[in-house]
Amino acid sequence: MSCGPKGSEEPSGLGCRVCGRHEELFELPGVSQKYCLECSADVATSILLTTEIDAATMAGQETNALVAEFEQLSHRLLERAQSA
Helix or strand or coil: residue 26? Predict the structure, then answer.
């Protein structure tokens, strides 16, 4: 599989927007940056959690469990970004 510009064997200069790894990158709907598989899963999960937290808040429901999950996810993304 070619991975660089115009099908060259060299990886392009762009890496994952979170961890910087030069792997296959994925686009998420509505997001302009590209991420490696692991980071794209976490970014997609964070988007969903934010939506669920907002919906629960608007409905007057408890959000502690969702917020705790979001905090863990954010910590994992931050650690990955700082180790890049």
Answer: strand
